[in-house]
Amino acid sequence: MIALFTDFGLHGPYTGQMKAVLHQMAPGIPIIDLFADAPVGNPKASAYLLAAYAAWFPMRTVLLCVVDPGVGGKRPSIFLKADGRWYIGPGNGLFELIQRRARETRSWDIDWKPKHLSASFHGRDLFAPVAAMLARGDPPPGQPRHDGADRRADWPDDLCEIVYVDHYGNAMTGLRAAMLPPGARLTAAGRVLDRARTFSDLPPGAAFWYENSNGLAEIAVNQGRADRDLGLVIGSPVEIVA
């Protein structure tokens, strides 16, 4: 299958145009909409989100990932294979956590050239065709990478920030819950938050953090909205209180 991870939003033509290329070049291969609302123009926050959610896809899945504020600039265009899954997109740090946490990984520079490459839509013109080629089982259309322009060694293993706010107003952090000390509390927006197992363990209106279904520490308000009630947005800092 091909999974889409983008910041294109839920409106407008961009996702549809990429899907049109995929259907034309890789007919019959299922296309999964994972995220269309990844953190806009924010490869760093997106990298932690992608690493948590990509792990649920089976081997040989092709993840087409576009969070690309530097489109048309000097950032490399790459694809990689990590623990049996393919990832295609901009080499701007988006795959840093995927590569860092993988048991086995290889990366390539895309050397395939389309007949037409717009300066502002590499998702449609470059990354989608390469994703289709890999999904079909074609030979990788690139050369092994030999520099670290796509890597971000200074990014932490876990990010003490809000990286996503979902439809319900719950605020995901870039922290893996399994990496936090037992009994840890989180501080966000001036509030100290205890850990709970799930929403119904606390009364309505209570704020807390919990391990979400994908392993991230997530801040929520039972029968409320953490974004509105606590004032949380993508990039809001979070502190760990042991």
Automatic annotation (TrEMBL):
It comes from Bradyrhizobium valentinum. Signal peptide: none annotated. This is SAM-dependent chlorinase/fluorinase. Keywords: S-adenosyl-L-methionine. PANTHER family: CHLORINASE MJ1651. It comes from the Bacteria. Belongs to the SAM hydrolase / SAM-dependent halogenase family. Residues 2-140 form the S-adenosyl-l-methionine hydroxide adenosyltransferase N-terminal domain. Pfam families: SAM_HAT_C, SAM_HAT_N. Residues 160-239 form the S-adenosyl-l-methionine hydroxide adenosyltransferase C-terminal domain.
